Amino acid sequence: MDSLDRAIIEATQAGLPLVPEPFAAVAAKVGASSEEVMARMQSMQEQGIIRRIGAVPNHYVLGFRGNGMSVWDVPDERIQACGEMIGALDFVSHAYHRPRHPPLWNYNLFAMVHGKDRDEVMKKVDRIAKLLGTDDRGHEVLF
């Protein structure tokens, strides 16, 4: 990894810019061509330096003000499947496994749910609960 790779990582660590040509914007910032930026990002992804390439929208700017972190108690042996189901939903920006801390904290799956307001978020959390079915052994939403 050289100085240009580092500059590309620094320029994109908060996500790609939300513009019609995001790689051109990054290229202008780091002093390279958009083709060079794309090739280097693909190479870094193949090497495991970058896990994924994507835009990170500012949900508040887009009008999503009721964002809530939903926390779920799901069977440990189902954590991967449940996380993938939840993470595939278009109103969830990220879902991830976290260790439990019983008896105070029994939740092992976290998912950020986005909505225009709290009521919309709670309706979406209800959808997740239905999707999980019996795998949902309890949940809360932290606003």
TrEMBL record:
EC number: 4.1.1.111
Pathway(s) served: Porphyrin-containing compound metabolism
All copies of domain Siroheme decarboxylase AsnC-like ligand binding, residue ranges: 62-135
Top-level EC class: lyase
Key words of the record: Lyase
Domain (Siroheme decarboxylase NirL-like HTH) ranges: 5-51
MF annotations from Gene Ontology: lyase activity
Catalysed transformations (reactions): siroheme + 2 H(+) = 12,18-didecarboxysiroheme + 2 CO2
InterPro entries: AsnC_trans_reg2, HTH-Siroheme_Decarb, NirdL-like_HTH, WH_DNA-bd_sf
Oligomer and partners: Probably forms a complex composed of NirD, NirL, NirG and NirH. All proteins are required for the total conversion of siroheme to didecarboxysiroheme.
Function: Involved in heme d1 biosynthesis. Catalyzes the decarboxylation of siroheme into didecarboxysiroheme.
Family according to the record: Belongs to the Ahb/Nir family.
Protein name: siroheme decarboxylase
